[in-house]
Structure of Purine nucleoside phosphorylase:
Amino acid sequence: MGELADALRSQLGARAPRIALVLGSGLGALVDAVEEPKRVPYSALPGMPVSAVSGHAGEVVIGWLAGVEIVILSGRIHYYESGDPAAMRPALEALKAIGIEILVLTNAAGSVNPSIQPGEVMLIEDHIAFSGRNPLIGEPSDARFVGMTTAYDEALRTAMLRGAVKVEEGLHRGVYMWFSGPSFETPAEIRMAKVLGADAVGMSTVPETILARFLGLRVVAASVITNMGAGITGDELSHTETKEVAPRGGARLARILAAALPHIAA
């Protein structure tokens, strides 16, 4: 963690961002809106977790978005790649060490709620960690007993909603359910998710939220809906569909974030 933090700090120069953004599958185009970008491949950062999933660029982008200094992680490693739910811990610890206070998480997700359609964006109000794995298993300190009642910061969620209103973009609100992946859910699992109160399902974000709260970071998160859950339309699901649809919702999310960031940073 120290070596990775030092490497990130050396890339910042005089910049002192307080906000970091993690981009999910197919959402890399969000970095196009960054002004004065400095791009650093993960491979150049010692100890940085690297994802091999297509649709994840694997680079850190440092710059300005809507007048706010920001660090973007374009791509994340997933639990299903290694079996380690704490795979993102080194990256998040390094962000904390360089002064990051707020973590904005994004993902591509499947909708369980017919009122939330592909191409739309959902603000995550709460989550269900259905995989059963926790990234703090093995943590020896009492800090592992992290309260999750307000995992997704209410003030930051309000800032996102204000941003959506400002740019006249729809922003749904709902519960995200974390499945381990990498296989997609079955129709029966989607029916179960709906009964349990989920609005969207996916394979990321929840471990990072838990780790971020453990580290004392404030969290806000949003899902770009790329498909309806298995069995809802009868169509088979694919990662190709995720990558194709994500940029459409990603453009909406980019507009919302650009309008929300000044409020998030306030």
User: Anything to note?
Assistant: The first strand starts at residue 19 and ends at 23. Strands lie at 19-23, 35-41, 59-65, 68-74, 102-111, 121-128, 172-178, 200-202, 218-228.
